[in-house]
Amino acid sequence: MFGGGGMNPRKMKQMMKQMGIDVTELEAEEVVIKTADEELVFSDAQVTRMDAQGQETYQIVGEPETRELGAGDDGGDESTEAADAIPADDVAIVAQRAGVPEDEAREALEAEDGDLAAAIARLE
């Protein structure tokens, strides 16, 4: 992290604490980084959160699986992709709160890019 060389890890942790740096290991099951072209999916990654003077930094150690985004866009089934993008639980919540059928709730969620509160407001 700081290139402590042969420094004792306990000593390193003590020095970081004196400098106001708090390091926490997170029990992450999966980490996903989305870019314009792909997703990097880290399974069983080692994740460390470092808080230094209110600024949080995350370190991910592991081998990612790369997934391309937009595969099959030419002549693809956009309605299926859009339906998959909105979780069924979200559709049910919006339908219940707004008192509308699920197909109307799904349309509102799609129009609001998945924002539950905006979709409910749109339907009320």
TrEMBL record:
Residues 55-87 are annotated as: Disordered. It comes from the Archaea. Residues 6-73 form the NAC-A/B domain. Pfam families: NAC. Coiled coil: none annotated. Contacts the emerging nascent chain on the ribosome. Homodimer. Interacts with the ribosome. Binds ribosomal RNA. This is Nascent polypeptide-associated complex protein. It comes from Haloferax marisrubri. The lineage of its organism: Archaea, Methanobacteriati, Methanobacteriota, Stenosarchaea group, Halobacteria.
